[in-house]
Amino acid sequence: MVNNLSTGNSILNQYIAEIRDAEIQKDSLRFRQNLERLGGIFAYEISKLLTYETREVVTPLGIANVPMLIEYPVLATILRAGLPFHQGFLNFFDKSENAFISAFRRYHKDGTFAINIEYASVTDIEDRVLILCDTMLASGQSMVLAYRELLSRGKPRHTHIVTAIANVEGLENIKKNIAKKDITIWVGAVDDELTAQSFIVPGLGDAGDLAYGKKS
What we know:
The chain has helices at 12-20, 28-47, 83-92, 141-151, 168-177, 207-212, and strands at residues 2-4, 52-59, 62-69, 74-79, 98-107, 113-121, 129-137, 158-167, 183-187, 190-191, 193-194, 200-201. By secondary structure, the chain is an alpha/beta fold. The protein has one domain (2-212): 3-Layer(aba) Sandwich (Rossmann fold). Strands 1, 4, 5, 6, 7, 8, 9 and 10 form an eight-stranded mixed β-sheet that branches. Helix 5 (168-177) links the parallel strand 8 (158-167) and strand 9. Helix 2 crosses helix 3 (83-92).
């Protein structure tokens, strides 16, 4: 299942427009904040699908019965571009445990590249709800490798894969190489074109550079 939140009218589309806008991108603080806002919107939508139980909350004037989460999801992201997006989820799921995966492109002399997983810090994900987020889903290979790395540490009960901007090719790669059951995909927008260097067009550019500065 793919949930594309841009198909309806909501404030999400405003934030998608701003992270794409080349002029607004010059303000890295605003770029990170917009990614946080998007993460919060996705967190709210996913929260509707989690399990709740009614608990009594004592107020100064009485007792209120309130549906509350039974279990917080585990939040995972791919370094470094996913960090501000991940923070948006953590702002909502503030009791969640977290996992971080370092993935990078190793370029060859002919201009091609391979994606390598360098490091993973993973909490217990066995039989848990997992949210795996990254700002961009281009070829989808980083997400596939990150998911497989997480699976080597445990099997989640259900996984939500979330990205702000996806490419059609990347979505097909996810569908082909990640088991379809117990997976839900969430996107903020879908673009059709992918360059030979696996950059999404129109996309937004390099999200990690825009958030934290260009790599040397």
